[in-house]
Specification:
- Pfam families: RVT_3, zf-RVT.
- This is RNase H type-1 domain-containing protein.
- InterPro entries: RNase_H-like, RNase_H-like_dom_plant, RNaseH-like_sf, RNaseH_domain, RNaseH_sf, RVT-Znf.
- There is one protein chain.
- This protein folds into 3 domains: 61 residues, no CATH class; 145 residues, no CATH class; 149 residues, Nucleotidyltransferase, domain 5 (2-Layer Sandwich), CATH 3.30.420.
- It has 17 helices and 7 strands.
- The chain is of the alpha/beta class.
- The site of zinc ion has 6 residues, from loops.
Length: 402
């Protein structure tokens, strides 16, 4: 009972509280105002400042995150998005910290799996904690890696916390270009690839093979860092307000290869008049080195919603690229809505663009690489002017490269 921890003078019994609770919890209790002895104990919801239950805080609690750790998670998400690492790693890390990887535990949680054993060691409960920390394979790989990683295999802290501590540690000591972050992530990524190869292709990859994979991945990461200065700029200039959204929302990779950002950059935008439903689409080539834009094309159309128009504009620009014989393209759009519709294959996409979405995916799948990124308005300004003109004067046009 709470009253057992309160002295007859009506103040917290600090000695008893320090004795019974962990230091952090005790401090939290002692910092509370002393409850009045004249009231009965009552229930309250500890995950919201008001003590009242809210759906949002309830959901956060059920997902395993308190408001405090949710806040930390937000900081970590932003940090991950700023790291100079392979784009596919970012998406992987984002899934990792949001418990969105298809581990057997996560699948079981969603009612989708029967056997949840680790395919390597046979332990029950294949979770991120197991795959990346407590599995004998993971332990061996970390031991052989060049990093000094404390595995805490008793599992006193969660995987997410363990992961976060290392990223923050390396980042604070080495900065965002940390070589140790690269290695840390490359090991996690390679453990995950090995796990998938075992799971889906019955391939047995041992510690040595995983370490070889790590060195190859690091090589790719170095090439990415050194050879794509233009794209780095685009990446870095993504407005910080968009970083509030998780990186998974911010770009989709629809081509055959998903491991890099192409150098050919196309800005796409739409312009729409809600009274007349008249719509214009525009696209322009952006040269990341000279920062110059060249008009690509534009079209006049009618659309029911801005989203429909953005989807049309995106589709038309992709088809134009194919006509121009391009095979690796990076498209900038300022429509976060379009991106989230393209990304979440499981979520019901917006009904008015179902067919266009399918057409975009179909067209994009013919490219070696087709990446669509959320940009801010400023980055598609030139295209907005083209789209405006196409809408206003009812014109469509298409330029040719060279
Ligand atoms: Zn295992």
């Amino acid at each position: 009972m709470v009253k057992d921890f309160i002295t007859p003078e009506g103040i917290w019994d600090s000695r008893l509280i320090r004795e019974r609770f962990e230091w952090k919890d005790a401090t939290a209790i002692l910092s509370l105002e002393t409850p009045s002895l004249h009231h009965d104990d009552h229930k309250y919801w500890k995950f919201h400042p008001t003590g009242k239950f809210t759906i949002k805080s309830g959901y956060a609690f059920l997902s395993g995150f308190t408001q405090e750790s949710q806040h930390q998670l937000g900081t970590l998400s932003k940090l991950i998005w700023k790291l100079k690492i392979l784009p596919k790693w970012r998406v992987f890390l984002w899934k990792l910290i949001h418990k969105a990887l298809a581990t057997k535990d996560n699948l079981a949680h969603r009612g989708m799996v029967v056997n949840n054993e680790c395919d390597y060691c046979g332990a029950t409960g294949e979770s991120t904690q197991h795959i990346f920390r407590t599995c004998s394979l993971a332990k061996l790989v970390w031991k052989l890696s060049s990093l000094t990683i404390f595995l805490d295999t008793n599992g006193t802290i969660s995987f997410e916390e363990w992961f976060q501590r290392y990223i923050l540690l390396f980042h604070s000591e080495d900065g965002k270009d940390s070589q140790r972050i690269d290695i840390f992530v490359a090991v996690l990524w390679s453990l995950w690839l090995a796990r998938n190869a075992r799971n889906y292709k019955n391939e047995e990859i041992h510690a040595r093979g995983i370490l070889f994979g790590v060195s190859q991945e690091l090589h790719k990461c170095n090439i990415f860092k050194n050879n794509r200065p233009g794209v780095e700029n685009i990446d870095a200039s993504l407005n910080s307000q968009h970083l509030v959204q998780p990186p998974g929302f911010l770009h989709v990779q629809l081509g055959k290869e998903q491991s890099f950002y192409p150098n050919f950059v196309l800005q796409v935008d739409g312009s729409w008049d809600k009274n007349t439903r008249k719509a214009g689409a525009g696209w322009a080539i952006f040269n990341p080195t000279t920062k110059e834009t060249t008009d690509g094309g534009g079209s006049y159309d009618l659309a029911h919603t801005p989203l429909q128009l953005e989807a049309h504009a995106c589709l038309k620009s992709i088809l134009w690229c194919k006509n121009q014989g391009l095979d690796e393209i990076l498209i900038l759009t300022d429509s976060a809505n379009l991106l989230s519709n393209l990304e979440f294959t499981t979520k019901e996409p917006h009904i008015t663009i179902l067919r266009t979405l399918a057409q975009i995916k179909e067209a994009a799948s013919n490219f070696k690489a087709c990446v669509i990124i959320k940009a801010d308005r400023q980055q598609v300004r030139r295209t907005h002017i083209i789209a405006n003109n196409c809408r206003r004067y009812g014109i469509s046009f298409s330029s040719n490269i060279v």
